[in-house]
Amino acid sequence: MANDRTASGSEPLVALYRMMVLIRRTEEQLARAHQMGLVPGPCHTYVGEEAIATGVCANLRADDVVFSTHRGHGHALAKGVSPRAVAAELMGKATGCSQGRGGSMHLFAPEIGLMGTSGIVGPSILQGAGAGYSFKLLGSDQVSVAFFGDGAVSNGAFHEGLNMAAIWDLPVIFVCEDNMYATEVAFRDATRVQDVAQRVRASYDMAAVRVDGNDVLAVRQAAEEAVARARSGDGPSLIDCKTYRTRPHAEGMRDGGYRTAEEMAAWKQRDPIAAHAAWLIEAGHASAADLEAIEAEATTTVNDAIEFARSSPFPDPATAADFIFSAGA
Ligand SMILES: Cc1ncc(C[n+]2csc(CCOP(=O)(O)OP(=O)(O)O)c2C)c(N)n1
Ligand SMILES: [Mg+2]
Predict the structure, then answer these.
(1) Which of 44, 50, 70, 179 for mutating ligand 1's site (highest number of atoms within 8 Å of CB)?
(2) What dihedral angle (degrees, nearest 10) is formed by the CA atoms of 192, 195, 200, 206?
(3) Distance of CA 82 from the midpoint of ligand 2 (Å)
(4) Alpha carbons 197 and 200: distance in angstroms, whole number
(5) Atom 11, ligand 1: which residue's CA is nearest?
(6) What is the pLDDT of residues 115-136, one digit of tens each?
(7) Among candidates 97, 45, 47, 92, which has minimal Cα distance to 72?
(8) Ligand 1, closest atom to CA 182?
(9) d(Cα 137, Cα 119) in Å, to the nearest integer?
(10) Domains present along the chain, CATH in parentheses
(11) Quick check: 41 and 107 in contact, CB under 8 A?
(12) Global pTM value
């Protein structure tokens, strides 16, 4: 399969575009909603990084699990959570995927394998390893995916999670979203080894590749190989995705001071959605009109989601204590 980008026919390739556009439109609208005061709390968007969640999740089944980060709206959408459920959750509404209790950084849909976004940097790595351990004990062929940023790779959780997954050959895919900054701290100032894949091969003897995280086909292919490895019992993998967030760390925060306008402009030129659009047209998988129709459809879907979220009720205060304890089996 190596480098064969046409083997799967046009529809799955176009579907990657559809998902990336859906994530982009959702994030743009959520950013607007945040500016309007409709989204309480921080809102970290995934704009510029859409190819990673899209390329990875395209290889997953509904019963595979994903552990996400504070920047998790794209992971949730790519795993199959609806824009309505995401938008309503960010607005704290009862129709949200966490019944309005969680907000942006606590999106849950375990019935389709979205095991949670998290406000804490690092635990997705341990949770992903733990789920992989349970799949191994159960003799299941499910796989577990842990997304995390460059800010997590010098966290103790990284060493513990990857080491354990390696020694026990767990079915886990570790996906590092290296967007070059942890809030305003440049990755080059935070580690001597910026090639995370190199560090992982050397430290854990784990299969690890570095890919262009703005190339959805490259991500999809790396993930396809990692998922196959995990399902067949051959152990974990790490995919080190180079990317860039083209909005501030969180909505309302500054964008300058720690990165230059030139750097931002250069990365905007490498937009993952525009790049995939150009490739789809050039390779004959879609026409410009096809792609415009997909964009229009995404706009309609997301407008509907925002309207649904705005018109949904807040949770009934009488239910404040619900969902705290398990109702039991
Ligand atoms: C354990 C922990 N330490 C610090 C923070 C504060 N914090 C929130 S986001 C963030 C930066 C994360 O950077 P990275 O992992 O690279 O993800 P990115 O925001 O770039 O997607 C930090 C330090 C936190 N949430 N959790
Ligand atoms: Mg980062």
Answers:
(1) 70
(2) -160
(3) 25
(4) 5
(5) 182
(6) 999 999 999 999 999 999 999 9
(7) 45
(8) 13
(9) 29
(10) 10-307 (3.40.50.970)
(11) no
(12) 0.96
